Amino acid sequence: MSACEIVFTREDINSIVQRVADKLNEEFSNSTSIPVFIGVLKGALPFMMDLIKKCTFDLKTDFIQVTSYSGTSSTGVIHLKKDISEDIRGKDVVIVEDIIDTGLTLNYLKQYIQLNYNPRSIKIVCLVDKKPLRKVNLQPDISGAIINQNKFLVGYGFDYNELGRNIDYVFVPTKKQLIEWDKKLNLEKK
Ligand code: 5GP
What we know:
By secondary structure, the protein is α/β, with parallel strands linked by helices. It contains four helices and eight strands, in the order βαβαβββαβββα. The chain has a six-stranded mixed sheet with strand order 4-3-2-5-6-7, with helices on both faces. Strands 1-8 form a two-stranded antiparallel ribbon. Strand 2 (about 35-40), helix 2 (about 45-55) and strand 3 form a beta-alpha-beta unit. It binds guanosine-5'-monophosphate. Guanosine-5'-monophosphate binds next to strand 3, strand 5 and helix 3. Guanosine-5'-monophosphate binds near residues 68, 99, 101, 154 and 159.
């Protein structure tokens, strides 16, 4: 992974996740509510797992999956692929997302969850808030880090055509890296 731009090291990620957890601990530690954390698959998986381990109150977990991305850009068309299984009616919900870019995915998810399950509250937590490309007025309640440039990120859950999610830091892949991944993916198809 030489010559790529590292955006967040493993240590950066650890402090970002701790900061987000501290805010949630403040909010829920003295409450009788048992919030349901809904992780948005697949990108939020590493963040969700690290985050819940730093939360010191009782919580439940669930997952939802939508698709909107192909390669390095959002298609803008959102499909629900997997729904939640917990009963969240009247409960406090925390949606855990890896990144907010245009805001279309979370806007869709928030409305979907509100209309279909009528929870008591919905909070949105994201690891990275990519502000410049917002197409809808959707603000997270807690964001780990804000990025003001339009960078395509890979690692720690962020993928390039499903690859790179397992890398332990966040970086901007070089063109060469993307070409190498494309080659591998093409070989796999044969
Ligand atoms: P939005 O609907 O806000 O445009 O995009 C949200 C989804 O797009 C995220 O859940 C994530 O899957 C994907 N996404 C947005 N920016 C990036 C990025 O920089 N890298 C990767 N790998 N995915 C991104």
